UniProtKB/TrEMBL annotation:
This is Chemokine interleukin-8-like domain-containing protein. SMART domains: SCY (SM00199). The keyword Signal applies. InterPro entries: Chemokine_b/g/d (IPR039809), Chemokine_IL8-like_dom (IPR001811), Interleukin_8-like_sf (IPR036048).
Amino acid sequence: MSGPSTVLRISLLLAACAVILVSSDIGKEITCCTKVNKSKQNSNMIVKYEIQKESSHCVNAIIFTLHDGTSRCSDPKAKWVTLKMKELDRKKRSAVPSNRR
């Protein structure tokens, strides 16, 4: 029973496994906040932010990236968080050159 049909079956099985592996999240880095820190971070260390919406096991969060590349999950309802986001948005807008004459 080790004829061409067995080889074909094994090949199809390996191909199916490869499709499942490629389409899954295995080996991918997943950044997801499952809880948020409600206390104020050192806002001078924050260089950018990302908004995370709730999905599956992730919670609503603002992911702040610090100058050393680390990330912090913060509560989007915290006053200091919204103020820091506005500050970063202002800095980003002022850094983009205007085409007005």
